[in-house]
Specification:
Strand content: 5-15%
Largest sheet: 2 strands, antiparallel
Order of helices and strands: HHHHEEHHH
Distance between the termini: 52 Å
Number of helices: 7
Shape: globular
Number of strands: 2
Length: 176
């Protein structure tokens, strides 16, 4: 119990703590085994996605729809590269060259994803897997972002669709 007394839980830490339990590690930093079976998708038991509590449907025109918003909250490369190395091991990728992976925000910053939560960041292969590459996900992210900021799609359904399966997210919200 002494460790629990030292732990300060904030709203942004809750997805991390919950994800550690979901992955079965018991701690937030222990090595886990994430499956590659769903590639080009992440293992949702390891990275279910996490939201930025500052971004809601009511705040989109003050946050995500403001030019430069994503770059203003993007975590430093020193943080994402360190996490990428750790997660490449957790996924058991045989290719451990970090340049072959994008430390991807499952729910992108442009759709209100948490910028730093390991539950929202995963090492997505840059090369095509199952007919899809990281560039394809970037295209989906941009189309969803434009639809949310134009009012064509509500924020929550866009977030849910991309977190569930980015390869079908556009059709899930009625876009093509």
């Amino acid at each position: 119990m002494p460790r629990l007394r030292q732990l300060v839980v904030t709203a942004s830490a809750l997805p991390l703590i919950a994800g550690a339990v979901i992955c079965g590690t018991g701690t937030a930093h222990a090595a886990t085994t994430c499956s590659q079976d769903r590639l080009p998708l992440q293992d949702s038991s390891c990275q279910p996605g996490a939201l930025n509590p500052d971004v809601t449907q009511d705040t989109i025109y003050d946050t995500i729809c403001v030019s430069g918003y994503s770059s203003s909250i993007r975590p430093p490369v020193s943080y994402t590269n360190s996490l990428k190395v750790q997660q490449i091991g957790e996924y058991g990728y045989t290719d451990t060259n970090t340049a072959d992976y994008e430390e991807d925000h499952l729910i992108p910053l442009s759709l209100g994803g948490d910028p730093r939560s390991p539950q929202n960041l995963w090492p997505q292969p840059r090369y095509a897997v199952g007919g899809y590459s990281s560039d394809d996900k970037d295209t989906v992210e941009y189309k969803l972002y434009k639809a949310v900021c134009s009012g064509t799609v509500q924020l929550a359904p866009a977030q849910q669709a991309i977190a569930t399966d980015w390869t079908t997210a556009l059709s899930a919200v009625g876009l093509s």
